[in-house]
């Protein structure tokens, strides 16, 4: 059996906190989780969930995977702070997501993406995931940023993690694709609102149960962009769909241990995945 000790940092913030202050505060929260194996942050915490009108001015450069050079460039502040925090804490860090500005435009001619970054305990950037399913239908994220096109998996301890973000949860076929790619752990940062919190809870358990894999999901707390109250309820779920830890409505750190043997045993004892046609 190989265990993975997980910390989920449910960050709370409001519109009055400067971006630079929040980056420093969150990096310090990561450092405080030294001794854990995996630390996960929420979606869009540096730039503000739902704060679409400020995304362009707050967008960040996301470098190619590899060592992260310390440049002091404000447009690399997020990646450099998270790389340093992962290295100093000695943890694998899923940095939630930020708005990325790319040098080349995407298919729709935009330069902005909702991008997640995964860092090794060395501080190296090991994987980047650009959110595939954009929220907003004909406004907000759907109008402002490009849609990613690639399914991304990455090794995290004894697991292979499928990286997804928030609104992706509503498309179960995407997680079957992750399962078929060899994933046995799902990591989901989000900026999910209070108004649809029960959907968040139900969808996360459904993804765990139907794919027989643990789910580590980190949401935000607080009120963003004036009146968007965030739902909190970050959660760690095992491969049987059992909730190991769940947060409330405010800032909180969840900790739990998951192991690959439990996942393998669940799949063996109830071999539903083998019955797929």
Automatic annotation (TrEMBL):
One of its GO terms (molecular function) is hydrolase activity. Residues 4-260 form the CN hydrolase domain. Signal peptide: none annotated. It comes from the Bacteria. Belongs to the carbon-nitrogen hydrolase superfamily. NIT1/NIT2 family. This is Predicted amidohydrolase. It comes from Kytococcus sedentarius (strain ATCC 14392 / DSM 20547 / JCM 11482 / CCUG 33030 / NBRC 15357 / NCTC 11040 / CCM 314 / 541) (Micrococcus sedentarius).
